[in-house]
Design brief:
By secondary structure, the chain is mainly β. The protein is 8% helix and 46% strand. The protein has two domains: 148 residues, Jelly Rolls, CATH 2.60.120; 104 residues, Jelly Rolls (Sandwich), CATH 2.60.120.10. It is built from three helices and 21 strands. The radius of gyration is 18 Å and the shape is globular.
Length: 261
């Protein structure tokens, strides 16, 4: 499969109303990524669990309220730059409890057909949507909230390597995520991964991505996914520092390499 590059505003729009916009950015076996806009008061599904995959969120603008753990009792008010992940069997739900729009990315890793579930709900095929890996909270309350990830904009492990700074936002087996800020001197040469998808969302500056044998310049709001085996790399054309959210699904040992230098 080829790489997937989505410019700002691109992707498959599944819902677009005054209250909600949802765009599918990428659908791979390893990952489905979606771009959401929630108006004030808009709610996601009620408390639920996923048995076989991780559900994660990264807030781009505004504030998203998430409820996690047994009884959905742990309330997290996630502002821009916050990454929250609920692994299998951790109860979670979310809503926009603020007075302004909330814009966020949502990741399902592995995908488990999340995009097909959204289309089925849109088209009124509830019987098809119910096949998705989603269930009511279990009687025992599910896994403890301590097994979820909550990484604030300024929190987590930070590794300053001079020409780049890497913050670990998530180190879960099914999805790891990194906030990477890098100078023009830092270049990641074209390469492939045999065992996982490597994805990026441009947060600031401009990034030149290697897309197979080509190169594409990306501005903030651009999404790029390199499936397993696809040639990719990136560099900063300058003049200032660029910044991306980098997501590996599954982790594929990348977190260990970051910590090891």
């Amino acid at each position: 499969m080829d790489g997937i590059l989505r410019r700002p505003g691109e992707g498959e729009t599944v819902f677009d109303t005054e209250r909600t916009t949802l765009r599918l950015l990428v659908e791979l076996e390893e990952l489905t990524a979606t771009w959401f806009r929630y108006s004030p008061g808009e709610k996601g599904p009620g408390p639920h669990v996923h048995h076989r995959h991780t559900d994660a969120f990264y807030v781009l603008e505004g504030e998203l309220e998430l409820a996690l753990g047994p009884g959905a009792a742990e309330i997290v008010r996630a502002t821009a730059g916050t990454f929250v992940a609920a692994p299998p069997e951790v109860v979670h739900t979310f809503r926009n409890a603020s007075g302004a729009d909330a814009i966020f990315l949502n990741f399902h890793a592995p995908s488990m057909g999340f995009g097909d579930m959204l289309r089925a709900r849109r088209d009124g095929h509830d019987e098809d949507a119910e096949r998705f890996d989603q269930a009511d909270p279990p009687p025992d309350g599910g896994r403890p909230v301590s097994e979820a990830v909550v990484s604030r904009a300024e929190g987590g492990e930070l590794f300053d390597r001079g020409d780049r700074a890497i913050g670990i936002k998530s180190d879960m087996p099914q999805i790891s995520a990194f906030d990477i800020a890098f100078d023009p001197e830092f270049v990641v040469d074209p390469h492939t991964h045999a065992d996982h998808a490597d994805s990026f969302y441009v947060l600031a500056g401009e990034v030149d991505f290697t897309v197979g044998d080509d190169e594409a310049r990306a501005v903030p709001g651009t999404w790029y996914s390199a499936p397993p085996g696809f040639r990719h790399g990136f560099r900063n054309p300058g003049p200032g520092r660029a910044r991306v959210l980098n997501v590996h699904t599954p982790d594929g040992g990348f977190t260990r390499r970051v910590r090891g230098g």
